[in-house]
Specification:
Blueprint: E1 2-7, H1 16-30, E2 34-39, H2 52-65, E3 77-80, H3 86-90, E4 95-98, H4 104-109, E5 115-120, H5 130-136, E6 142-145, H6 148-157, E7 163-164, E8 187-191, H7 200-213, E9 218-223, E10 235-239, H8 243-252, E11 255-258, H9 267-274, E12 278-282, E13 297-300, H10 305-316, H11 319-333, H12 338-350
Parallel strand pairs: 1-2, 1-4, 2-3, 4-5, 5-6, 6-7, 8-9, 8-11, 9-10, 11-12, 12-13
Helix pairs in contact: 7-10, 9-11
Length: 351
């Protein structure tokens, strides 16, 4: 079967939504399908002010060499949406995925004979009106959502019920290698991100107050952005951490802290749980897909710094509770395997 994913543009830095699409592409390719990735690239590199023909040369070049942060199967074709007649290269495909609000119109107006699937990983109301966003759910595509709360919204507007396909992780990679009782005391893991919806300012505010309480506190922070200014020496920042390095971080810390305000899902929390870190998070909608307060995580209201501090402190001071929460987290993540998810996706594709 010939399958194509349409993405907004190439990305040189890891993005959770792209990572999931790439994982699907790899697995569909490995199972014998002919898979292509089309990157629209409409706005890529315009900020540099290059003449258009120079911009196109760079855009096409980076389309072919990226993503260097993710190992794609070599037989997956990568096509720039800025190249001549790119639609003709994939217009005879059997299945086409729209993967974001920026890609829906292109899929709607082309690929007449293909099965059209709308892969919805978030409530993408940025840059468009909510009326327009809701209308895209009515286009007659086969809608797939990654979380229950998104499904509830989409199904209000879609003529047919969407499929729920929760994002999985590779549980052969994300594993607990260090037991809770053997981890360095007073350690916290954190994903650094500059988007306000990630809530990092609230996580850092909690961490600085925790440092006043626990002088031995140390933080392992990772992300793709430049290191924040005036970062104290007890916060260790790893820019561009590889998958192996993030697994090591998850296995090093007692607690993984997340203060997100809004996310469609939130993969890092799930990855941390799989590696045995105790998840302390805000109760944003996405985390509720896999985290249950008091069972496998400690959840608090969004923007509530004091509750984040309280939950981290409770875990630091109670080894039995850390071990219980860690064990429950590791066990509950097992259902989010790629094998089961691919069975569901193949059913959707072939139905």
């Amino acid at each position: 079967m010939k399958i194509c994913f349409i993405l907004p543009g190439f990305t040189r830095t890891p993005i959770g939504g792209y990572k999931i699409v790439y994982e699907y592409a790899n697995r569909l390719s490995t199972s014998g399908n002919q898979v292509s990735l089309v990157f629209l690239n409409n706005e890529k590199m315009r900020q540099f002010g290059f003449p258009e023909f120079i911009r196109l040369i760079f855009v096409n070049f980076f389309t072919q060499i990226e993503p260097r942060w993710f190992l794609l199967n070599k037989n997956i074709k990568k096509i720039s949406g800025q190249s001549n007649n790119f639609i003709k290269k994939v217009n005879n495909y059997d299945v086409v995925f729209a993967t974001g609000i920026q890609t829906v119109e292109l899929v709607k107006n082309n690929f007449g004979n293909a099965k059209k699937i709308y892969f919805i990983q978030g409530y993408e109301n940025w840059g468009v009106t909510e009326e327009y966003l809701h209308n895209t759910y009515k286009y007659g595509f086969t809608n797939i959502t990654v979380s229950r709360w998104l499904k509830e919204i989409v199904d209000v507007y879609s003529e047919k019920s969407s499929y729920l396909l929760k994002n999985p992780i590779d549980t052969t990679i994300y594993q607990r290698k260090v037991n809770q009782k053997d981890r360095t005391p007073y350690t916290i893991g954190l994903l650094y991100h500059t988007e306000k919806i990630k809530g990092v300012r609230y996580a850092l505010a909690a961490i600085y107050k925790l440092k006043e309480k626990y002088s031995n506190l140390s933080v392992e922070m990772f992300g793709m952005f430049p290191e924040p200014k005036n970062l104290p020496e007890w916060i260790h920042y790893k820019r561009g951490a590889t998958q192996k390095e993030t697994v090591n971080i998850y296995n090093k810390v007692q607690v993984f802290l997340c203060a997100s305000i809004e996310e469609g899902y939130g993969l890092t929390g799930l990855e941390a749980m799989a590696c045995g870190a105790c998840l302390v998070s805000t109760s944003y909608k996405g985390v509720l897909e896999y985290a249950e307060n008091g069972y496998n995580a400690l959840l608090s209201p969004v923007k509530d710094i004091d509750m984040l501090i309280k939950h981290v402190s409770e875990l630091f001071e109670n080894q039995r509770e850390r071990i219980r929460l860690s064990n429950n987290g590791v066990e509950s993540v097992k259902i989010y395997s790629w094998d089961e998810t691919m069975n569901k996706l193949n059913y959707i594709i072939n139905k």
